[in-house]
Every structure is written in structure tokens, then in C-alpha cells.
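Let's practice the habit of predicting before peeking. Look at the sequence and jot down your guess about where helices and strands might fall. Then scroll down.
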Amino acid sequence: MHNELVTPFWKNALQSFPVELRHRYVHQIEQAERWELRLASVVQGWSRGKAAFARMFPIRRSAH
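Done guessing? Here is the structure:
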């Protein structure tokens, strides 16, 4: 299964390879992009969860 690259960075990275080498590294580039997108999703979910938790349990800050 061949996936299309969606981020400009990874599209440019693949295009930077010489034509004769692109087919050799296309799967690694696609995999790296998938990892990047998953990691960004995890970070975004963690951030949203942390913000929701903070709203549910506000902490009073002391003057010290």
C-alpha cells in the first residue's frame, strides 16, 4: 500500500533525493511522516487532557 505524503516537509525531503534513489527511501520517508503525525497527535491530546484536568481541579496559588 502506497501512502501519499501530506506534509510539505516530507514531500520536500523525498524530492531532495536523486530520482534514482527515491524509490529506495520512499517507505522510510512515509514511515517517518506517520511517526511525526502520531507524535503530534499524542502531544496535542496530552495538552488538551492536562488543560481539562486543570479546569476540573483548579489549584490556588499562594502569595509566597
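How did you do? Helices lie at 8-16, 19-56.
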